[in-house]
Every structure is written in structure tokens, then in C-alpha cells.
């Protein structure tokens, strides 16, 4: 007979995922799928905390009110704080009735095409304290907000664990704490944590707040925003976050009038909160600085800003295309065409071949300088494709130079080997650091491909490290 759990525990600040995962794992079913069916009535739910679709059912099982679950345990307040009030109310209503996709749509999150957070995150020090106080481990809401990578209380880097649909997980104890010194990361954590607790922000007034600060910093006048100056500054400010595909996508060099311009020109669209967070953290020193500026922003002053419409992206693309066609028709070399149209080699080739034109293969030999720069890059291990892009020659040319240099070929093989080995070793080491007793079984479970690579190529080190763990 299955024992029914009475009033399951719900901790303050823990996420919907955390509550649901504990219930499902406590169900003692043979698998997560059957646990989900027993507890939530279906195995088809996506167990997440952002805008979850199973709130009514979870409320029934836990005895906690649906609205309390939404306000105190989901990320709804974060995701909706920059939306207009009608959209926010509509999304809330939908979530209370279990309609998650409707809520995503109402908040404009589908149109934004920004991926969800791939990781579950926890702070090792918070977990030690939590275990001491409650004898339990939980996922905390502030840590799961997108782009947040540091615990605002302890200034410690959050440990990330990749989410898997049918594997429910909890934080681990005894992970090493690593201090994070990045001011930007700390600001993102602080803003993301505090702003949703202050209520919501009206889009029109937000734009004015941004514009006034931009003007103070010389990045806008009352007629125009200096995007060509602002975007490089944003890229520089967030350079360490460009490895995150969402940030890279938003600050992509080829989308001049995408972000951040669309926040100002597409006035009626809803925007993903990440876009606002990137602007706010860049423009304001701390939460107080932002709140004071926002409160002081005067609606009447918006009339002073008569921003002229930017050139649409389509027009920019068209102009680029024209330039490339001109260059190709006039038999410019690939390198000159790249420089002339300010685009990559691949773009020139694609547009030329798409229009049925073939690029003139240069008859003259590569100059001494070009050969030298290719050789140097080959020596330090650049990929041939990258070298071709950077120097504006064909991949075939680079490969030809490589063929004539067997020593460099050998060296490149060694470089590849050592970097692969270094990467695999550091994955194993970081997994070890998070584990009390690290065994072969753990290695296979958590980082199979790295384990297998080391087993094949670096078995001594692997054996020794696992034995010493
Ligand atoms: Zn912490």
C-alpha cells in the first residue's frame, strides 16, 4: 500500500522544481516517469520553476495555495516585472489555470527566442548552512535566475548542474567554495534578486529612465541613441558573458538594430527580462541608483526625446549585399572584398555563389607576409578554417601550406592532444571537488566522454587521481 504523505515540507525561497522533485523522489516509484504520474497525474510536464504548467496540481498535492506557489516559489515575478500590467495579469491568470505556453506568449517570451536556463545552480556555502539548519537540501529561487552565477550573500560562485528532463536532482554537499570577484556578476545577482521584490516597472517609464542615463553618459541625445558607440561598450562590459549563447545572440555584431535598439523602437512589444537586466546593470551602479532614477523619471520629459527611426536591418543587409556584388563583379580579391564590405569571407562567398557569380581565384601566389602569418597561426594550433577566414584565403591554400610542413603537422597533433587532455582532466577534477568519495561509477555517470577519453589515452593519471580521491 502506498503511504500518502501529509502536508509535505515547503521551505521559504525554494523553487517549484525543488518542491516537485522532492515529492516525486519521495514517491519511491521505480522511475521518475512513474513518480511524476503518481504525484502530478502525468509524466508529460516539464519540471521547471520559470513559468510552470502544473501549479494547480501541485497546489492540490501540497495543500499550498496556487497563488502562493506562483508568487513565492516560481520565477514569475522576475519574468513579468518589465511587462505592461495587462500582459502580466493575463499571464498570471493563465498560470493559475495551468496554461504555461499561454503565459509565455502573453509575456512575449516566445517571440524573443531566448533560450531557457540550461543549468540548476546552488551555492556551496548556502547548502552547508541549509543542511545544518534543516537537514535538507533545496534549490533556491534567487540562484536559478537567468545569468546569475554568484551567490549575493556569500560572494561565492554558484555550482552549475546540467538539467535533465527525466533525472531529478538536488544540490550536493561539500563542494568547494570559490570566491567570485567579478563586479558585473555580482551586480547581475543583486539586481535580479532585488528588483522582482519591488513590484513591476512600467515599460514607457523604463525607456525614459534609460534614455536620461544614456544622455548623461554621452550615449544619446534627444534625437538619437548612439548605438555605434553603445553596442561596443556593452560588448566590452559583458565580454566575459559572451560565452553564454543568449548574451552572444543579443550582442551579435551583425544585428546592428536588434538589441538594445528594439527596446526603444519597438514600443509595443514585450521584451525578455534579460534584455532589460543587461541594460540596467550596464547603466546603473546599484539597485538604489536605478530605483531613484526610475522614480524621478518624468513622463512629460519623454516628449523631449524625439528619437528618429533607425535604419531597418533589412536595409543594412541590402546595402551590404550591393557592396559585395560590386566587389565581386569588379574582380576584387576576396580579401579586398571583405574589407570593402566589412564582412567575413564566408558572407562574400555565400552571396557570390547565391547570385551565380564565382569568385575569381587569384592567379598570383600568396605574398610572403600572408604565408608567414598563416604559418604562425598553424604553429599555435588555429583551425585551418579559422585561418582561412582571418587571412582571407581559401581553406585549400592553408592546407597546401600545411602539407609542405610535416613538422608543423606533428606539432599540431600534439597541441590538439594536450588541449583535449587538459580539458578532460579539468572536468574530472571539478567533479571530484564536488564529491565526497569519487569512484569510477561517478565519473562514468557524470562525465562519460571525458572519462572514456582519459581511459584510452591517459589511464595512469586517471587511475591515480581516482585512487587518491
Ligand atoms: Zn550562498
Note down, in words, how this protein is organized.
InterPro entries: TniQ (IPR009492), TnsD_C (IPR032750). It holds the Pfam family TniQ. The chain is mainly α and 469 residues long. The chain has four domains: 175 residues, no CATH class; 104 residues, no CATH class; 54 residues, no CATH class; 60 residues. Helix 6 runs antiparallel to helix 7 and helix 9 packs across helix 14. Bound molecules: zinc ion (ZN). The site of zinc ion (ZN) has 7 residues, from helix 8.
Short description:
With 469 residues, the chain is mainly alpha-helical. The chain is 55% helix and 3% strand.
Q: Fraction of residues in helices?
A: 55-70%
**Rounded average pLDDT:** 85
Major sheet attributes: 2 strands, antiparallel
Ions, cofactors and other bound molecules = zinc ion
Number of helices: 25
Residue runs with pLDDT of under 50 for 5 or more positions: 1-5
Strand order of the largest sheet: 1-4
Rounded to an integer, what's the Rg over CA atoms?
27 Å
Secondary structure elements and their pairing?
Elements: H1 16-26, H2 32-40, H3 55-62, H4 66-73, H5 76-80, H6 85-96, H7 100-106, E1 119-122, H8 124-134, E2 150-151, E3 156-157, E4 159-162, H9 183-194, H10 203-216, H11 227-237, H12 245-250, H13 261-265, H14 273-283, H15 287-296, H16 313-329, H17 334-341, H18 345-354, H19 368-379, H20 384-391, H21 395-403, H22 406-433, H23 440-446, H24 448-457, H25 459-468
Antiparallel strand pairs: 1-4, 2-3
The chain binds zinc ion.
Zinc ion binds next to helix 8.
Domain TniQ: 6-158
Domain Transposon Tn7 transposition protein TnsD C-terminal: 201-465
Pfam family, one: TnsD
Amino acid at each position: 500500500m502506498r503511504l500518502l504523505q501529509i502536508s509535505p515540507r515547503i521551505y521559504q525561497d525554494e523553487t517549484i522544481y525543488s518542491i516537485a522533485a522532492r515529492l516525486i523522489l519521495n514517491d519511491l516509484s521505480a522511475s521518475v516517469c512513474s513518480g511524476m504520474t503518481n504525484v502530478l497525474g502525468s509524466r508529460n510536464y516539464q519540471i521547471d520553476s520559470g513559468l510552470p504548467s502544473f501549479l494547480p496540481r501541485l497546489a492540490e498535492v501540497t495543500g499550498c495555495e496556487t497563488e502562493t506557489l506562483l508568487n513565492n516559489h516560481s520565477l514569475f515575478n522576475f519574468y513579468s516585472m518589465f511587462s505592461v500590467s495587462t500582459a502580466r495579469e493575463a499571464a498570471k491568470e493563465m498560470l493559475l489555470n495551468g496554461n504555461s505556453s499561454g503565459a509565455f506568449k502573453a509575456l512575449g517570451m516566445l517571440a524573443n527566442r531566448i533560450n531557457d536556463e540550461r543549468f540548476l545552480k546552488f551555492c556551496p556555502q548556502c547548502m552547508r548552512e541549509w543542511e545544518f539548519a534543516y537537514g535538507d537540501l533545496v534549490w533556491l529561487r534567487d540562484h536559478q535566475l537567468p545569468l546569475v552565477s554568484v551567490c549575493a550573500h556569500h560572494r561565492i560562485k554558484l555550482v552549475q548542474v546540467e538539467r535533465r528532463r527525466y533525472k531529478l536532482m538536488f544540490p550536493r554537499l561539500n563542494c568547494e567554495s570559490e570566491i567570485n570577484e567579478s563586479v558585473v556578476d555580482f551586480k547581475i545577482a543583486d539586481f535580479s534578486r532585488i528588483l522582482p521584490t519591488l513590484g513591476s516597472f512600467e515599460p514607457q517609464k523604463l525607456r525614459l529612465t534609460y534614455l536620461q542615463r544614456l544622455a548623461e553618459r554621452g550615449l544619446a541625445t534627444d534625437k538619437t541613441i548612439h548605438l555605434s558607440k553603445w553596442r561596443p561598450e556593452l560588448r566590452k562590459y559583458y565580454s566575459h558573458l559572451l560565452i553564454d549563447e543568449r548574451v552572444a545572440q543579443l550582442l551579435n555584431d551583425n544585428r546592428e538594430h536588434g538589441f538594445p535598439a528594439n527596446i526603444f523602437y519597438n514600443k509595443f512589444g514585450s521584451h525578455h527580462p534579460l534584455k532589460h537586466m543587461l541594460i540596467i546593470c550596464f547603466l546603473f551602479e546599484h539597485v538604489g541608483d536605478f530605483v531613484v532614477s526610475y522614480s524621478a523619471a518624468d513622463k512629460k520629459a519623454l516628449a523631449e526625446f524625439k528619437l528618429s527611426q533607425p535604419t531597418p536591418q533589412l536595409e543594412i543587409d541590402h546595402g551590404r549585399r550591393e557592396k559585395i556584388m560590386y566587389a565581386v563583379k569588379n574582380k576584387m580579391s576576396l580579401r579586398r572584398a571583405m574589407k570593402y564590405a566589412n564582412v567575413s569571407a564566408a558572407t562574400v562567398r555565400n552571396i557570390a555563389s547565391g547570385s551565380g557569380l564565382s569568385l575569381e581565384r587569384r592567379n598570383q601566389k600568396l605574398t610572403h607576409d600572408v604565408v608567414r602569418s598563416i604559418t604562425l597561426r598553424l604553429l599555435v594550433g588555429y583551425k585551418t578554417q579559422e585561418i582561412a577566414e582571418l587571412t582571407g584565403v581559401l581553406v585549400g591554400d592553408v592546407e597546401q601550406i600545411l602539407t609542405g610542413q610535416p613538422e608543423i603537422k606533428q606539432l599540431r597533433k600534439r597541441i590538439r592532444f594536450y588541449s583535449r587532455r587538459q580539458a578532460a582532466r579539468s572536468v574530472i577534477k571539478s567533479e571530484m571537488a564536488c564529491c565526497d568519495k569519487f569512484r569510477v561509477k561517478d565519473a562514468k555517470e557524470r562525465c562519460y566522454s571525458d572519462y572514456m577519453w582519459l581511459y584510452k589515452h591517459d589511464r595512469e593519471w586517471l587511475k591515480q587521481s581516482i585512487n587518491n580521491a
